[in-house]
Every structure is written in structure tokens, then in C-alpha cells.
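Fill-in record for ABC transporter permease subunit.
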Amino acid sequence: MTGPETAPAAALPHLKSAAAGASPLLSSVLFSLFRGALLLVLVSAAVFTATELLPGDAADLMASPGADEEQTRHLREELGLDAEPWRRYLDWAGALLSGDMGTSLVNGRPVADSLAQRLPATLALVVGALLIAAPASLGLAWWAGTTRRGRRISTAVLTGGAAVPTAVTAAALAALFSGAFALVPPVSLLPPGDSPWHHPDLLFLPVVSMALPTAFFGGGLLAGSLADIVRLPHVADARRRGVPSRRIALVDVLPFLLAPFVRVLAVSAGGLIAAAAVVETLFGYPGLGSLLVSAISTRDLPVVQATAVLAAAVVLLGLLLGDVVAVSTEPTRGRAS
């Protein structure tokens, strides 16, 4: 019998196919969310513990010269530092879950205000560095993954470039572009309240200092994936049939490289957040990294905690988006060209 009665039965295979296709994506999202929540807890606990292990606290640093132990104790009570560490951590975590990041122990300013002021500056560095590092890492990976001779040399170049500390790269670039050629300022002191995008000369040194090691790091990760892809049967078949190299690259290789490329970008973004702390301190750039370093030096625990958790949240969000895009775009291996 044909007609409306058979329509649901005919559509059932398509619904099952759609559900099967959505299942890996849903599983990836759920796993990433669980992983992200767990890592945020671990990051906050690790940062809190590390700060507690530092000698002294905010009360010791804020006490006036010559203050006796009793005065320091009263100041510690005013700052809420007299409670047990585990209780202070739980109080802070509970307040954070309710949207309260706390107040700075040093200047009494809401931590959320400080983060909102500094976050755009750091994101400008990360985005700028990714815009440079992404195509550069893809080019380096293509060179290393497709070369048949000198594989050891290409691997050594990528590994060596990624191993150079960000501080060394920054110092070399500053000596070259600020010292030798005097093309850009040696420091990146943004005017208060001004957008970093209005001052590309101030962004140049920190952005390039972060982008170069990231490009080598990403190129090294992608080179292995690319070497595997070019050995897939459909790529070898395309070569035997005399398909032009450009078409092989665009049609048979790049679609398979998109998923690992997105994941590498997500991992690289996390590394750039960490590198920002070094670069911002070196160039006097007013971002999250310099705020974190300053807060650690003054034992301003609420600022340290909130900055670390915010940076971790940004990284984990990038990883989540990377997983979603990678799962959504990953083609079926072994298709014919």
C-alpha cells in the first residue's frame, strides 16, 4: 500500500542516518563540556594552592613599614585571610558560581572590572598572532609533510623553531625592529581606554613574538597529519591518473587536513594565552598576562584566581569550538578522488 501510511516508514532510514551523523558531534560536545568543567576546577585549585605556597600574603605586603605583628594580624582579618585556606577557596568558588569574582585585596576594585578592561587587549594579541600563525603553520606543514628528501632537516627546523622561548624571540625582534631599524616602539604602552587596533605599531612586536613560535609549533603538529594524508589511497590514485598537483592539494588533501588544522588552532590559542603573560610583561602591554604577573607579585589572590580561570575558560572554549568544527568537517577517509 502506498500513500501517507508509508511516508513515515520511508523517512525512518533518513532519520536514523541523521541521528547517527549527529551522535559523534553530540558526544564530542558533551565530553568537551565535562572536560572543561573538570579542568576549570583543577586550574582554580592548582592556582590557589600555588599562591598559598608563596612566602607571605597580601597583608604582609600591604602592611606599612614598621608595622608590628598585631597590626599585620588585624589587616589580615580585614582582608579575610585569617580563615583556613580550604574555606577561603570554597567561599571564592561559591561566589564565582554566582557571578561574583570578588574584590581586589590591593586596590579594592571589583575584579570583574579589571578583567573587562584588560581582556580585549589580550584577545587582540591572540587574534593577531593566530592570523599570522595559521597560514604560516599550514605552509610549514605542507613543506615538511610533502618533502621526500630532507625530512630530518624539516623536522629539525620545525622542532627548533617551536623550542625557542617566546622571551628570546621577543628580545631578538625588539633588537632588530626597534633597535637596528627603529621601525616600531620598543614598548607597547597603550593609551588608557584606547583600542589596541588603533595602534598597529604597538601591536607589531608582541603579536609577531607570539606568532613565530606558534607557527613552528603548529607546523610540526600538522606535518605528521599531512604526511599521513598524502599516503591515502585516493591521493595515490589521483597521482597515478595524472591529476594536476594543485587539484590534488585542493580537492584530495586539504579537506582531510581541515579537522586536524582546526584542532591545532585551538591548541595554539591556548598556548598564545600563556605566551601573552611573558610578552605583555616584556613590552609593558596592558593585558591579562601583565595583570596576572602583577597580582602574583602582590599576592592579590582574587585577581590571580579570576584571571587564571578566565584564561582557562577562553582556552577551553576554543578547544570546544575546535572539536565541534573538526567533528563536523572531518570527511570519510578512503573516499575515491
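KEY FINDING: Residues 46 and 305 are 10 Å apart (CA to CA).
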